[in-house]
Amino acid sequence: MQAYVYKSQRKPDTYLYLAARDDFGCLPQPLLASLQPLVFVLDVALTAERTLARTDPAAVRANLAGCGFHLQVPPLPDGRTDRDDD
Questions:
Q1: Where are the domains of the chain?
Q2: Bridge partners of 4?
Q3: Residue 12, preceding peptide bond in cis (omega within 30° of 0)
Q4: Which band of pLDDT confidence, cut at 50, 70 and 90, is reported for residue 80?
Q5: 54 near 4, Cβ under 8 Å?
Q6: How far is Cα of residue 42 from the mean position of the Cα atoms in its chain?
Q7: Rg of the chain taking only CA atoms, in angstroms
Q8: Which of 6, 14, 19, 77 could form a Cys-Cys staple with 64, CB 3.0–4.6 A?
Q9: What pLDDT is recorded for position 82?
Q10: In whole angstroms, what is the distance from residue 57 CA to residue 55 CA?
């Protein structure tokens, strides 16, 4: 699966993964407005062997297949992410 990654210029360390390049139509309009402007940074093949620095590639693949996008946000100040169990 191919993913196209965009960096938000408004929200630091926030990245948007899309299933199709420049296909912003799959995002809710309020979310898109909160992230813009967006700058394309890379395209990446999300193979089973692929690792990503701050997000689970399996979750990215599932989100891309399900809704067409995945939003990667920075970790909380204490280092936790939304994937951590409390």
A1: 2-72
A2: 18, 43
A3: no
A4: low
A5: no
A6: 12
A7: 13
A8: 19
A9: 56
A10: 6
